[in-house]
Amino acid sequence: MRKIQLLSIVLIPAFLAGCAGLQRDHVRFDGLSDCPKHSATTLAAKQSQLSPSSDTQTLACALTVLRETQDQSVLRTSLGSRLSLYLAERETNQEKREKLAAEGVGFAETALAQGGDGDGAVHYYLATNLGLAIREQITLAIDNLSRLENELKRALALSPDIDDGGPLRILGALYLKAPAWPNGIGDPDKALELLERAVKEYPGHPINHLFYAQALWDEEDEALLPRIKAEFSQGEKLLAEGNWGYSKQPWIKEFEEFRREIGEARLGVPAANGTPHN
Amino acid sequence: MRKTCLIVIAGLLASCTVSAAPDPEMIVVCYPGGSVNVKDANGAMSAMLRVVERVGQWQANSFNSLFTSKTDECRKQMAEKNPKFAITSLGLYLELRTLHNWVPVVQPRIKGRSSERYRVVAQKGKYKNLDELKGKTLGGTVLEEQAFIGKIVFAGKYDPASFFVLKPSNQAIRALRALDKGELDAVILNEQQFGGLASLQLTTPLEAIFTSEEIPMMGVVANSAITTVEDRSRFGRALEEMCSDAEGKKLCELFGVESFVFMDVSLFEPMIKLWGEGK
User: Fold this and answer.
1) A254 CA to chain B: closest CA distance, Å?
2) What is the pLDDT of residues A80-99, one digit of tens each?
3) Which single residue of A108, A190, B50, B136 has CA 20 to 30 Å from B276?
4) At residue B87, what are phi and psi to the nearest 5 degrees?
5) Using CB atoms, which residue from A14, A139, A182 is nearest to B254?
C-alpha cells in the first residue's frame, strides 16, 4: 500500500481536478463469466483467504458479489471495503483507482449505517480507502483531513492490531505528512509517538519501520542517523523476506524514494532485492 | 508570511509571465524557518504550476520551481538561478533587494490586511516585558532570520543573538509545548501562529509581552533588470484577478487569501530604513 503517498497532501497541489466529491460510479470488471458461484455468505465464510496476495480476478469476482448483495450481516462488516482497497492499491490507472477506493468508502459507510460502528476494521478501511481516493485532489484532501483523523482514532481505539498496527501506522503518517499547526492537524510529536509505538508493538510490518525512519528523518538531527538507518534496514529486510503479495512492489518504491531523499551514501544499507547500496 | 501564501503565489506566478519559454522559467521560492519538506513543497508547486499553465493556456512545463527553507540555500539559489520572479520573506527581500534589483510586485491580503505583527509570548505573569527576558531562552520558527527579527521586528532595540539564548525551531507547536512545560522562557510568533494559539490545548495560560509594529507581508518580487514594466504589470494584474476567477477563487479560499494586491512600495520605505540603520 502506498500509504505515505496517499497522505502526501502536505501542501498545495493537483488542484481542481474533481473538487465536487468522491467518484461514485463503479469500475467495470472483465471476465466475470469465469467467476466461481459464490453468495455473500459463502464469501464471508472464506474471507480470510482474500488478501493482498489474492489475484485480481478473484478479488473482482468477490467484489461483484458484494455489490449485488442485500445481506445485512455481510454488509455491516468491513469485507467490501477491504476488497476494494486491495484492488485500488494495485490499480495503476488513477481514475479507476479512485473509483475503487471511493467504492470502498461507500461499503464502509454502508457498514456503519447497518450497525458496524463498533467494528474497528470498518473505520480503518474507510480511512485507508478515503485517503487513497483523495490523495491526488488537494481540496478534497484538505476537506477530509479531520474525517481521516477521526476514523483512524476510532480504528485505533477499537482494533489496534488490524493490519499489523495499521491504525497506529496510518494515523502516525497522517500527523507526519499533514500540514502542521497552525495550518492543519500535522504534529511531529504525535507522529513520532505513534510510529515508535507501531515499530515496538508491531515490529513485523516493513512499513512501520519505514514510516518511523521518515519521522526520525524529519527531526533533522544527525544524531538520529544510526537509528534511521537501523529502522530502514529492518524494514527492507522484512520486505525482502516476507510474502507481501501485490503490496510488495509499491512498498519497494516507497523505500527507494526515501533512500533517494536522504541519500544512499548516508543511508548505506542494502536494497530490498539484495543489491548492495554503497 | 504564511507558507500557504507562499505556495499560492508560487503557483499563480506562472500565469503572469510574458510567454512560454522553450526552457522552463525557474521560480525560486524561499520560506525561511518553515517546516515544509522540500521534496513535498517542490512537488506541490510543480503540480500547481501545471494547473496554472493549463488555466493560463501556457505550454505545459513552461515553468519550474525551486523551494528552500534555508536562508543560506536561498542566497545561493538566487545567485545561481538569477530568477526573473521570486517569492521571498521580507527579511530576504531587505537583504538581497539591491543585489538582485528586486522590486515588490504583489502581496496577499488576508482578513483585510496585508501586514502583520509579531509577538513574543511567555507564561502569563512570569515576565512583564522584553527587558526581563535578557539572558533567557527564546524559541520560535521565525528565528531562522535573526537579522530581520533584530532590525525590523525589534526595530533595532534588541539584538536577538546577544540578548537572548536563542532556541530556533522548525515547528512552532513544539516551541509552544516547550514553553508550556517551562523548558523555554518565551516564544516569538508571527501573526498566523499567534492567531492559532486558542486551538492549542496548553496547560499554562500565555500572554504577549511584546507586540511589534505593523510589518508588511512580502510576496512576489521581480528582478527589474531582466523584467520589463509590462511584465510586472501584466503579472500583477493577473494575480489581482485570480481570486475572482472561478477556479482561482477556490484556490484562494483554500488558503484564506482574499486577494492579491499590488504592493505599495512606500510601505517598505520604513522597513528599508530600519534595515539600513539596524545594529
Assistant:
1) 14
2) 999 999 999 999 999 999 99
3) B136
4) -120, 125
5) A139
Phi, psi at B256, each rounded to 5°: 70, 15
Angstroms from B67 CA to nearest CA on chain A: 12
ipTM over 0.90: no
My answer on whether A270 and A155 are in the same domain is: no
pLDDT of B24 reads: 82
pLDDT per position in chain B (279 positions), as tens?
A: 333 333 333 333 333 333 334 578 787 888 787 666 666 666 666 655 665 566 556 677 877 888 888 889 999 999 999 998 888 899 999 999 999 999 998 898 888 899 999 999 999 999 999 999 999 999 999 998 999 999 999 999 999 999 999 999 888 999 999 999 999 999 999 998 999 999 998 999 999 999 999 999 998 899 999 999 987 887 777 677 767 766 666 656 655 678 889 998 899 999 999 999 875
User: Does pTM surpass 0.90?
Assistant: no
pLDDT reported for residue A59: 96
Which chain A residues touch B37 with a CB distance below 8 Å? Answer: 10, 218
Q: Which of A8, A11, A16 sits opposite B250 (nearest CB)?
A: A16
In 3D space, the residue among A193, A157, A158, A151 whose CA is nearest the CA of residue A172 turns out to be A193
Per-residue cell: B53: 499553465
Instruction: Return the residue in B27, B38, B51 with the most chain A beta carbons within 10 A, the one to mutate for interface testing.
Output: B51
- On whether both A226 and A271 belong to a single domain, the answer is yes
Whether the bond between A160 and the residue before it is cis, its omega within 30 degrees of 0, is no
Q: How far apart, in whole angstroms, are the C-alpha atoms of residue B193 and residue B175? A: 11
* One-letter-per-residue 3-state SS of A199-219: HHHCCCCHHHHHHHHHHHHCC
Tens of pLDDT, residue by residue over B259-272, are: 889 998 899 999 99
Question: Which chain A residue has its CA at the smallest distance from B174's CA?
Answer: A189
**One domain for residues A7 and A78:** yes
Residue B7's pLDDT is 39
Chain B hits for A19, CB-CB cut-off 8 Å, are 250
Cα Rg for chain B, rounded, in angstroms? 19
Q: Are A141 and A132 in contact (CB under 8 A)?
A: no
Final residue in a domain of this structure, among A183, A217, A235: A183
Kindly list the structural domains of chain B, giving each domain's residue range(s) and its CATH number in brackets, ordered by start. 3-113+216-277 (3.40.190.10), 118-211 (3.40.190.10)
Do A231 and A118 reside in the same domain of the chain?
Answer: no
Which residue type occupies B226? Answer: I
DSSP string, B155-216: TTS--HHHHSEEEE-S-HHHHHHHHHTTS-SEEEE-HHHHHTGGGS--SS-EEEEEEPPPEE
C-alpha cell at A90: 494495485
- Give pLDDT, residue B47: 58
Q: Which triple of cell numbers denotes residue A54?
A: 489474492
* Residues A219-242: tens digit of each pLDDT: 888 899 999 999 999 999 999 999
Q: How confident is the model at residue A68 (pLDDT cuts 50, 70, 90)?
A: very high
**Chain B: closest CA distance from residue A63 (Å):** 34
Total structural domains in chain A?
2
B122 phi/psi in degrees, rounded to 5: -145, 170
